[in-house]
Amino acid sequence: MLKARVIPCLLLKGGGGLVKTKKFGSPTYIGDPINAVKIYNEKEVDELMFLDITASKEQRGPNFSFLKDIATECFIPLCYGGGITKTDEIRKLLRIGIEKVSLNSVNFTNPGLISEAVKLFGSSTIVGSMDVKMNLFRKLRVFNSKTRDTTKLDPIEYALSLESRGAGEILLNAVDRDGMLAGYDYELIKKITDAVKVPVIACGGASKLEDIERVVKYSGASAAAAGSLFVYQGGNKGVLINYPNYQQLEEILN
C-alpha cells in the first residue's frame, strides 16, 4: 500500500467539458470528462477529483445530471467541488455516487456549512478547500476564486479554522503555481501540514514525479493532486491522459 494518494485533479467549465487553467485563468479545452474517467479507471488511480471552476462565479449549483453520468462511469473514489451551498446539494451528490465533496467559495459566505455538513454526513465526506495567492506585498493570503480577490486572511489560520469546523481533509491549491509546471509550493504546504492534524491534499504546480515525492516526503502532504502532469504529455503539451503505474509510485512514495 502506498503511503500517500496521488489524485488527478480535473477541471470542468460550465458543468461540461474538461479544461486546464494557468493561475486560475485562461481555461483551455482539453477533452471529454467521460473519456478521461474511462482511461483513469483502466489506470486504477487512487482517487479522482472534479472541480467545476465556473459554478460559484455563475451562482449556480452543481450540474447533477452530468455529474451522475460521470459517477456512473467512474469505478474509483470520486470527489467533487463547485457551486455547493446547501446540505441538500451534498446529499444529492452523495446519492448519485460522489463520495466526497469539496467546499471552497461557500466558506466565505456561510462558514457554518462545513460543520452542518459534517454532522449530517461525517468528516470523511467533507473536504475544506482553500486557494492561496501572493498579494502585492508578496505575502501569501487566502484567495477567493469566486470574486477573484486576494483576501487578508492568513493561510495557516484559515486552514486551522477549516479543521476546527470539522473538515476531514484540506485541499490546498496554490494559485500562482496552477498550470505553471514549476513544482508545488513546498514551504507553504509544509507550514500547513505542520499546523493541522487532518490530511492535506497539495495541489498546483506538479510537472514530474519527483515533485510528488518531495511534496509528500518534505512537505508532509497526505495526498498530491495534479492537473497538467496527468493530462499533458511532452514539451508541446499534447493532451494525453496519463498516470504513473504502481511500481513508479511505489519507488517515489515508499
If you had to describe this structure to a student in words, what would you say it looks like?
The chain has 254 residues and is an alpha/beta fold. It contains ten helices and 14 strands. The protein has helices spanning 33-42, 64-73, 87-95, 106-109, 113-121, 155-164, 186-195, 209-217, 228-231, 246-253; strands at 5-12, 18-22, 25-31, 48-52, 78-81, 100-103, 126-134, 140-144, 149-150, 169-174, 200-203, 223-226, 232-233, 238-239. Strands 1-4-5-6-7-10-11-12 form an eight-stranded parallel β-barrel, surrounded by six helices. A hairpin with a 4-residue loop joins strand 8 and strand 9 (149-150). Helix 8 crosses helix 10 (246-253). The protein is globular, with a radius of gyration of 17 Å. It starts with a strand and ends with a helix.
Summarize the structure.
The chain is an alpha/beta fold.
List the main descriptive attributes of the protein structure presented here:
alpha/beta, 8-stranded parallel beta barrel, single chain, globular, two-stranded antiparallel sheet, 254 residues, 33% helix
| Fraction of residues in β-strands | 25-35%
Q: Compute the CA-based radius of gyration.
A: 17 Å
Q: Trace the largest sheet across and list its strands.
A: 1-4-5-6-7-10-11-12
Distance between the termini: 9 Å
- Ranges with pLDDT <50 over ≥5 residues? none
Quaternary status: single chain
Main sheet characteristics? 8 strands, parallel, barrel
Question: How many β-strands, per DSSP?
Answer: 14
Instruction: Give the integer mean of the pLDDT values.
Output: 96
Number of continuous helical runs? 10
Q: Structural class of the secondary structure composition?
A: alpha/beta
Helix content: 25-40%
Series of secondary-structure elements, N-terminal to C-terminal: EEEHEHEHEHHEEEHEHEHEHEEH
Which word captures the global form? globular
